[in-house]
Amino acid sequence: QVQLVESGGGLVQAGGSLSVSCDASGSSSSIVDMGWFRQAPRKTRDLVATISSGGNTNYAGSVKGRFTISRDSAKNTVYLQMTNLETEDTAIYYCYATVASRIGITTYWGQGTQVTVSS
User: Fold this and answer.
1) Furthest-apart CA pair in the chain: how many Å?
2) Do the bridges between strand 18-26 and strand 77-82 make them parallel or antiparallel, or are there none, so unpaired?
3) Mean pLDDT in residue range 27-33
4) For position 18, what pLDDT does the model report?
5) Nearest to 5 by CA among 108, 115, 116
6) Which residues contact 19 (CB under 8 A, 6 or more apart)?
7) Residues 36, 68, 25, 115, CA torsion sign
8) Tens digit of pLDDT for each residue in 37-83?
């Protein structure tokens, strides 16, 4: 079992910056990938950014160049630095972690943190 707790988020004006972080606990030594999804009202939960245990990153096209994902493996924490925010970035941001075990791959989710970008 892995528990994920997000922090950060909040309200920011368009063009501003904001950071969110996610702390993993439990069987966190088996974490492979970590990252962020987001879900806006009445929309699907979409990928924002991912980072592998080796540090390889992947971004959604809509955030590439504006968002930066990073990871502190020693602390089992993943960060998302968001800059030049747009109103379309308003969503609940969910942290996830994938864990490898003998039974396979399991994905865990945090409870989500609200990011609101005002015009």
Assistant:
1) 48
2) antiparallel
3) 80
4) 98
5) 108
6) 8, 79, 80, 81, 82
7) negative
8) 999 999 999 999 999 999 999 999 999 999 999 999 888 999 999 99
